[in-house]
Amino acid sequence: MWWKRLLALGVAVFLSLPVIGLATEKDKILARVGPYQLTEAQLNAQVAEMPAQIQVLLAHQPELKKELVNRWVEISLLSLEAEKEGLNEDPLIKARIQQARSAILAQELIRRQIIDKTEINDAEARKYYQENKAQFSQPERIKARHILIAVEDPASADSKKAAREKAEKILARVRAGEDFAELAKKYSDDPGSREKGGDLGFFSRGQMIEPFEKAAFSLKVGEISGLVESPFGYHIIKVEERQPAQTTPYEKVKEQVREKALEAKRESVLEAYLQQLRKKYPVSTYLK
Q1: Nearest Cα residue to 227 out of 165, 277, 284, 179
Q2: Edge-first strand listing for the sheet containing 199-204
Q3: What angle do CA 62, 67, 69 make, to 5 degrees?
Q4: Neighbours of 234 (CB within 10 A)
Q5: Which UniProt key words apply to this protein (predicted)?
């Protein structure tokens, strides 16, 4: 469907009314539909407002601009016919057009008064980093393998006993020196890790169920747990690596910090600006 292509290309700008006006001598006219016309300058201005990935796509595939012009023509045709049908006089549509107009004006005001005028310096970025180090920190993590002997749900006493006995035999083989990964491949009931020899990769606290997490984080590197019971069954856990909690140095995340600090500053400036406007214009709300 063409409107899906429209969305895929990020051309929400074309949802605005077609352009009426005269081109200057320097403006190259790309299309005309009745009283509407689209110039190259207008198209380029709209493309400049699109997401960066769309701009890159258009730069590498300039033929897509023809697709944009075709979409503009289609919308212009539909708009003309809608006006002929009198839809522009429908009260509900008038209200929607007013809402769209208000949203466009508000967005442009924010861009000019807040986004374009708000900057961040290194001192402000460093201050943000110091006050929000948790955002740039990595919690303690461990890398572990496990062997799961699953228990039926709901589990009968007999099925739990059988699963536990099987897990105990495997645990004995692990402690006798057999290869943990090979035993996991052969016996583990965890489909997500079995083919990887029970490898769970790195994980931090809060990512695993409580009994498993408590047991895993209590182990030293190379240590093997006893049987750990969880709602899934019986686990045998081996910790292979441990990474302590650490904060990434400022220099390594400087650009990320600046972006976050700038976003926070813009939000603060916008809130202050809105407070000024509330004093400038009368505001009443009636919802309780």
Answers
A1: 165
A2: 199-204, 141-150, 233-243, 228-230
A3: 100
A4: 24
A5: Isomerase, Rotamase, Signal
The answer to which of 41-45, 52-56, 141-145 has the lowest mean pLDDT is: 52-56
Q: Give the pairing type, strands 199-204 and 141-150.
A: antiparallel
Distance, CA of 146 to CA of 193 (rounded, Å): 8
* Three-class secondary structure of residue 178 per DSSP: coil
pTM of the model: 0.62
In the chain, DSSP assigns E strands to 29-33, 36-39, 137-138, 141-150, 199-204, 228-230, 233-243, 246-247
Taking only the tens place, the pLDDT of each residue in 106-130 is 999 999 999 999 999 999 999 999 9
Cα four-point dihedral sign 16, 17, 18, 23: negative
pLDDT per residue over 49-91, tens digit each? 777 777 888 788 888 888 888 888 998 899 999 999 999 999 9
